[in-house]
Design brief:
single chain; Growth Hormone, Chain: A; mainly alpha; about 500 residues
């Protein structure tokens, strides 16, 4: 079937919509669970490949590549359509996973994981934009909540799944299992996702923006990673990377605003109230999520004396909050004209949960941290899909992919920033040697560790407070029905052309 413009939600049949959603969920699950599954297998991998010195860089290479490619892939989705970009991401992810499985040395694995991160970022940049193409506002926001729940669930099931696969088969199967799942996702996307035939060509790509963005973001992310790994902020390695990256980002800004005819990042979007506020909300809610996920197990094990196995299951309350409150938030947003109050509530809940965690001591018990985790999960479960839905309703249709991927980029960028800042606080309180003692089962008394984590979670709460203040300035706009928006814009998307639906 051909039409003169992109298909709106009402123009896509239920069967096609279902198949497209299955493909998107599989793609999201692959990109989300991959990190936590591989993390559980890393000790065995490092031992087998005799590469303990590069242990951390297997994760760093993936995270850096995924973060830097997100704004690029979002723009490409606007230019060439979501379907071909998703298919490239899935195909590349399958190939990269297979290459990781056959890696013979640790440097090879680091390189192949960077390649996997590149294609994983392509997927993350376009999955949530795809929902805007095939769902009406209420259903879109509910589905975004469900999708974020899938991503949150991967944090819980990933480590035990990775451990099981490693013990039952081998660590190589941690990567090989992505191949059949990825092929199934490719089939679903190929069949279910509408294809937009655009007039864009490779000459329209902002190559200058791509180059300067990569050269600016990569050093900053690596520098932040080094600070969280025990390097001082004032060390030559860290300062050189951070300052060099910042200068190149200034060049990127100049290229985008003065030379690029089709800029990678449309900077005028930051003058839009809804976009600017939701970027702040996305960044600080992700900051809180990373800090909670990474340091709450340390709180349970080092302060409350809970076993490592049991401490992992105690992250489930946060995950349940993510899964349950996301779809609820979708219904509330479409029914509540002043949905700014919902954003205020979400950030306040996250802040309250972090303040509760900052009060936990050796004799507190497990009730307080569990309640805190529920509050944090509830707030994140509302804030994540809300940020995406509000931005998609406030920006021009031609910039839908670029705008949505910016929200995802700032979420991903918040991860290394959180680990760098919070890791510096912890090491400053107990020392790098003290951290090794905690992880090894001795050295730091629970009371001393509790004091260090008090400052850590209090800092997180203050950071989230910035996001809370920003929500008071949000100006509500009606949630956009994509079919009506396309009719109003004459059927134009990221580029002129026609749509061919599967």
């Amino acid at each position: 079937m051909s039409t003169g413009g992109r298909p709106g939600p009402q123009e896509v049949s239920s069967r096609v919509q279902l198949i497209a959603t299955i493909g998107a969920i599989l793609a999201l699950a692959l990109a989300s669970i991959d990190v936590s599954v591989v993390g559980a297998a890393m000790p065995r991998i490092a031992d087998d490949l005799q590469g303990l010195g590069l242990y951390a860089w297997v994760g760093v290479s993936y995270a850096v590549a995924a973060a830097v490619v997100v704004p690029i892939a979002g723009k490409l989705g606007d230019m060439f359509g979501r379907k071909p970009v998703l298919l490239v991401g899935l195909g590349g992810f399958v190939i990269a996973s297979w290459l990781c499985g056959i890696a013979q040395t640790m440097p090879q694995l680091v390189g192949f994981r960077g390649l996997a991160g590149l294609f994983g970022g392509i997927l993350m940049a376009n999955i949530f934009t795809l929902l805007a193409d095939i769902y009406t506002p209420e259903r879109r926001t509910q589905m975004q909540g469900l999708f974020f729940g899938v991503a949150g669930l991967s944090m819980v099931i990933g480590p035990p799944l990775g451990g099981f696969i490693t013990d039952a088969w081998s660590w190589r199967w941690v990567f090989y299992v992505n191949v059949p799942l990825g092929l199934l996702a490719i089939l679903a996307v190929a069949v279910g996702v509408p294809f937009v035939r655009t007039g864009a060509s490779w000459r329209d790509i902002d190559f200058g923006g791509v180059l300067t963005l990569v050269l600016g973001v990569v050093p900053i992310l690596i520098g932040l990673t080094l600070t969280g790994d025990g390097h001082a902020w004032t060390s030559p390695e860290v300062l050189g990377l951070l300052v060099g990256g910042a200068l190149l980002l200034v060049v990127f800004f100049l290229v985008e605003t003065r030379r690029a005819s089709n800029p990678l990042v449309p900077f005028p979007l930051f003058r839009t109230n809804q976009f600017a506020v939701m970027v702040v909300v996305a960044f600080f809610s992700a900051f809180a999520m990373m800090g909670t996920t990474f340091y709450v197990p340390l709180l349970y094990q080092g302060v409350l004396g809970v076993s490592a196995t049991h401490s992992g299951t105690l992250l489930i309350p946060m995950t349940l909050g993510l899964m349950l409150f996301g779809p609820v938030a979708g219904k509330v947003m479409t029914a509540l004209p002043r949905y700014r109050l919902l954003a205020v509530f979400a950030m306040a809940a996250i802040m309250a949960g972090l303040l509760m965690l900052s009060s936990v001591g050796p004799h507190t018990g497990q009730v307080v941290p569990i309640v805190a985790m529920v509050l944090i999960g509830m707030g994140i479960g509302i804030a994540f899909p809300m940020a995406t839905a509000v931005v998609q309703s406030a920006i021009p249709m031609s910039q839908m992919g670029a705008g949505t991927s910016q929200i995802q980029f700032w979420r991903m960028f918040a991860g290394p920033v959180a680990l760098a800042v919070l890791g510096s606080i912890l090491s400053g309180q107990i020392g790098v040697a003290g951290q090794a003692g905690v992880l090894g089962g001795g050295g730091v008394p629970p009371a001393q560790l509790a004091d260090a984590l008090h400052d850590l979670f209090l800092t997180s709460a203050i950071a989230v407070g910035i996001g809370l203040v920003a929500t008071f300035f949000l100006k509500e706009v009606p949630l956009r029905d994509m079919s009506m928006a396309r009719k109003a814009s004459g059927g134009r998307g990221g580029a002129k052309g026609k749509t061919v639906t599967a």
